């Protein structure tokens, strides 16, 4: 029996595609993404597989940077649909009892009081299973939906995010444990000496408090964060319970793991209690040949190049419509966006040749973003075990090639093998997400 066990998180979008933009075209894909049953079925499947958490990515705009138009986004289904996550999580909470539920909320377009109240409420209604994926938001389409002409600079976004977290944490802590008395006889509802104003007065926010929600079952909902830049890694070291990474290969993942854990320790926190989780795809088949054929289809058959470019333009805030697919990625392009530079360097390591615009687009929209584990249940478990046991990660954020099939296949074919090897739980550790993660209640 392995002492240490994997953390597994299901990665979702509340819309027509997963993070793989061809997912809606897969022959067996369920297109019921505008119904609650779609989301509750997936969450119940992951709970059956004893996953720690299901969390939803979000963007606050339809991709519209490519050609300064939404036409290709809409035509090819490049994530034009994004439902409100509070309602989706509410439905999942009612249909499940143990799996953690996470949502992405931006520190750039929401206010601390709103976010603190939303996640404290979700934590109560779920019995302590809420997680907040903190993002700073990077693109102009989102800014313009919120009446701002363009987004803040990189460091300013992180300055604001840091203060945002301070204010939210203070609001979550504004009710002490045991503040509620609820004595019908005496008429005393709660102890005012245990409910405090926050009086946060900072550069970005002024928040009086207290929160209108008593202290929640987890004390503070769990925090998930995916910063990969220097400032992002600092932020994660200080605040995150789970760090969502995008390391393409095992060597990169090992060095990132080692450096980030050192950074967590340097910020005065226990590195054992922060989970580092690379995003990975699993393509599993009853035989290796079946898995390889499915992988070929996912790479070649379902992603339209213009859908790729629409998404790539959005995530990098750069209009690729000015280039041909065959154009090489130039120094000038890389200087216009740090995101292009990072992505191009990562893709160049993969390909070992000159990188073209088509290569970038394919990387973003297909299965090249993180590790890809392909094969039978046993083979996939071998690959996951190698990453987990050789200092690459504490588990995985699993992205789906299609829904609900990809998660159903992982739960049916891969999870039992991990459980047999003692690498993954057979039962939930307790009622809260912090119980599953082994992270103490603050």
Automatic annotation (TrEMBL):
Q: Give an example GO molecular function.
A: monooxygenase activity
Residues that coordinate or bind FMN: 58, 104, 154, 158, 228-229
**Domain Luciferase-like span(s) in chain numbering:** 35-391
Report the domain of life of the source organism.
Bacteria
- Family matches, as Pfam families: Bac_luciferase
Keywords assigned = Flavoprotein, FMN, Monooxygenase, Oxidoreductase
Tell me the protein family, please. Answer: Belongs to the NtaA/SnaA/DszA monooxygenase family.
Cite the NCBIfam families for this sequence: FMN_nitrolo
Record's protein name = FMN-dependent oxidoreductase (Nitrilotriacetate monooxygenase family)
Q: What is the organism field in this record?
A: Pseudonocardia sediminis
């Amino acid at each position: 029996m392995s002492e240490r066990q994997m953390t597994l998180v299901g990665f979702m979008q509340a819309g027509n595609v997963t993070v793989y933009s061809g997912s809606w075209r897969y022959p067996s894909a369920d297109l019921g993404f505008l119904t609650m049953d779609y989301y509750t079925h997936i969450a119940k499947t992951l709970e059956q597989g004893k996953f720690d958490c299901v969390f939803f990515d979000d963007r606050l705009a339809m991709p519209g940077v490519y050609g300064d138009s939404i036409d290709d986004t809409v035509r090819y289904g490049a994530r034009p649909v994004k439902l409100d996550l509070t309602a989706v999580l509410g439905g999942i909470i009612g249909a499940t009892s143990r799996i953690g539920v996470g949502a992405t909320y931006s520190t750039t377009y929401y206010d601390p009081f709103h976010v603190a109240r939303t996640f404290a409420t979700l934590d109560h209604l779920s019995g302590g299973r809420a997680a907040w994926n903190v993002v700073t938001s990077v693109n102009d389409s989102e800014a313009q939906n919120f009446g701002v002409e363009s987004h803040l600079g990189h460091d300013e976004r992180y300055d604001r995010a840091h203060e945002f977290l301070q204010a939210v944490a203070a609001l979550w802590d504004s009710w002490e444990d045991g503040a509620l008395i609820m004595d019908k006889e005496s008429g005393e509802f709660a102890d005012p000496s245990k409910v405090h104003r926050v009086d946060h007065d900072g550069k970005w926010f002024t928040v009086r408090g207290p929160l209108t929600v008593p202290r929640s079952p987890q004390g503070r909902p769990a925090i998930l964060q995916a910063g990969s830049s220097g400032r992002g890694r600092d932020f994660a070291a200080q605040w995150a319970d789970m760090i969502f990474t995008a390391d393409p290969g095992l060597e990169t993942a090992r060095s990132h793991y080692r450096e980030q854990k050192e950074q967590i320790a340097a910020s005065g926190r226990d590195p054992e209690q922060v989970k580092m989780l690379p995003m990975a795809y699993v393509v599993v088949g009853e035989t290796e040949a079946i898995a390889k054929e499915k992988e070929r289809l996912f790479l070649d058959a379902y992603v339209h190049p213009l859908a790729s470019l629409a998404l790539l333009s959005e995530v990098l805030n750069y209009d690729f419509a000015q280039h041909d697919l065959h154009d090489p990625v130039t120094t000038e392009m890389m200087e216009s966006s740090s995101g292009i530079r990072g992505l191009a360097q990562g893709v160049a390591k993969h390909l070992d040749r000159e990188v073209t615009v088509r290569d970038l687009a394919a990387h973003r929209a297909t299965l090249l973003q993180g590790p890809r584990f392909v094969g039978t249940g046993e083979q996939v478990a071998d690959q996951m075990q190698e990453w987990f046991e050789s200092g690459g990660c504490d588990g995985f954020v699993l992205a789906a090639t299609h829904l609900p099939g990809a998660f159903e296949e992982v739960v049916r074919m891969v999870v039992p093998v991990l459980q047999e090897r003692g690498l993954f739980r057979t039962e939930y550790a307790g009622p809260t997400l912090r119980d599953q993660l082994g992270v103490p209640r603050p």
